[in-house]
Every structure is written in C-alpha cells, then in structure tokens.
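Please, structure for the following, as tokens.
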Amino acid sequence: MKKKLLLTMLIVLLAACTSDDSILSFSEVETVPENLNQLINPHEPLQLIYEGEQTAYVIYQSAGDLLTDIEEQDDTLKILISEADGSSIPAKQHVYKLTLDDHHEVIDVFINGKSTAFDRVSTLGEEN
C-alpha cells in the first residue's frame, strides 16, 4: 500500500514539474467562422478581433504571400509578418488565430520589420 501511495505521489510531483502553463499559439485559419467573417472589414488592412480573454484573431489583407512568426519579449508578444511583393488584386485576406498566455499585455505587429498599428481592434459580439 505504501508503495502505491509513494508511486502516486511521485507521478503527481513529476506531472507538476513538467506541466507547461504556456498556451501560446498562432496559426492560419482555413475556414473563418461566420460570426468572425461578419465582423471583418475588408477595407482595413490590419485588424485584431478578440474572442474572449485569451483568444484573438489577427486579420491582414495582403496582395503578396506571407511568412509569419511570433516572438515573446517580457509581457509583449511580437507578431512578425514578412510580405513578399505580390500582384494579387484584390488583396487576399489572411486570418490567424492567436491564443495568448496570461502574461501577455501588449501585442505588437511587425510587417517587413516595421512596427505597425492595428487599423481596427474589436471584440466578437460587437456591432460594426
């Protein structure tokens, strides 16, 4: 009985030591949910739409192909977008789902190395 209790305690301790509270993720959305699609303004190139406290969507209208990455720096999340010269007319809409960690206070977007402000920040459920 003592061995089972000791084994259980060891498993719990190891699980606690290896648990990763990080939930940070950033990925392109293949199918945009209808409620999100209705809120996107096609005339604003860079938008941030929150869906709760830890989930948001980054929308970027671009005529070129994109490469994206994210970096963390203290309480800031940097979204890095590299845009290839393109001739896609009209611009293509890229939608990314972003899941944030609790400690992120600032989201900064860099397009081709230049810090860029969001044209629009809103929350799902708001009217246009």
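The longest strand covers residues 55-62. The beta strands are 25-28, 46-50, 55-62, 66-73, 76-83, 92-99, 106-111, 114-116, 120-123.
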